[in-house]
Amino acid sequence: MTENEDASRPYRHDGTDRRMHNVDARTLRSLAHPLRIRLLNTLREFGPATASKLGERLGESSGATSYHLRQLAEAGLVEDAPELGKGRERWWRAVHEGSIFESADFLTHTDPEVRGAIGVVLHEVATTHAQELNTWLGTMSEWPQEWRQSSDMSDFKVRLTPELARELSAKLHAVVESYRDVVPEDTEGSAVVRTHLHTFPRPSE
Question: Nearest-CA neighbor of 33 among 117, 100, 109, 94?
Fold first, then answer.
């Protein structure tokens, strides 16, 4: 199972206490564009914005962001935020805090368009993770010593069965969830912490 929140950004979640969206084949096809994924992630992470502001942040034209925002709106992933607009200014916000989907189901879907769409989405998620990590490595010297000491970049190799691999991922997701609402947003010295999880088999030879 993959959860993409703002982050994008996969981790498991039962979806019972948060505004999570279960992605179906139709939504997946609408989401299968790199800019749409970036737009959705940005709205989830930084809150409502106009097409122009999103274009400035992402280095895209307002025409492109406006078009893809409308496509996301048709898929039910973003919506108007009219209370924020002034005059003809149109603001957009994400409808959900994150998305949940079972990537294995889409990889074996009978529709080749769906199989292609999940490939686009997963590769964009992987690209985003790499970009976020590289950004941290390039800016970590600007952070206080306490944050530099608290960061982590590790990898592990463990021999498992498919069932145990799923169990491992579920337990790691549960650990992350246990910290989700511990620190209030206005806590001095706090920051949003990104945790990426990738679990996959490797060839024995």
Answer: 117
DSSP 141: G
Contact by Cβ (8 Å): 47, 127: no
- Give the residue carrying structure tokens 């999940």: 118
Helix (H) / strand (E) containing 101:
strand 98-101
The pTM of this model reads 0.79
Burial class (CB in 10 A: 0-12, 13-18, 19+), 75: buried
Give me the sheet containing 20-22, strands edge to edge. 2-5, 98-101, 20-22
The string of pLDDT tens digits covering residues 114-137 is 999 999 999 999 999 999 999 999
- What is the secondary structure of 50-86 as a DSSP string? EHHHHHHHHT--HHHHHHHHHHHHHTTSEEE-GGG--
Instruction: Answer yes or no: is 12 within a domain.
Output: yes
For residue range 44-73, what is the model confidence (pLDDT) as tens digits? 989 999 999 999 999 999 999 999 999 999
How far, in Å, are 64, 81, 88, 95, 176 from residue 44 at the CA level? 19, 14, 23, 9, 18
In a domain, 58, yes or no: yes
CATH of the domain at 35: 1.10.10.10
- Structural domain of residue 140, as residue ranges? 2-157
Q: What is the DSSP letter of 4?
A: E
